[in-house]
Amino acid sequence: MRKETAGYSLLELTVVLAIMALVVAVAMPAVGASLERMTVQSDARALMLGLRALRAHALDRQVDIAVTVSGVEGNVLNASDGTAIVLAAGTVVAVAPELRVTWDGRITGAVRLSRGAARLQITPDRLTGRLSAAGVR
Description:
Layout lengths: L9 H52 L3 E6 L5 E4 L4 E3 L5 E10 L5 E9 L2 E7 L6 E5 L2
Antiparallel strand pairs: 1-2, 1-4, 2-3, 4-5, 5-6, 6-7
């Protein structure tokens, strides 16, 4: 007589682990790209919030504010009024041609954020100062 035991054989467990490893190996690049995209979107929201605050400051004080990129990784934007906008480490910021907030509320220039394959460009409306973020290919 054969005695039946509860549980799985070693072969069955090995097959299940191999299938799980294959699924994880296929899914990891998609998860990484998604994480990069979400980080860039979060940085874009933080940057737009900081620029809106600088715009309000420029309107209140009737001064022009220049914004420059600094930091070891190029992820810090410094304003001429002493304000700093720090983005996530690994996010690269490029300003073209010059980012300036004027005393009348206009914002000139554009900011491009990139992290891995994820890229966003923040552009202001020259008349209203309204900021918009769009993906860049």
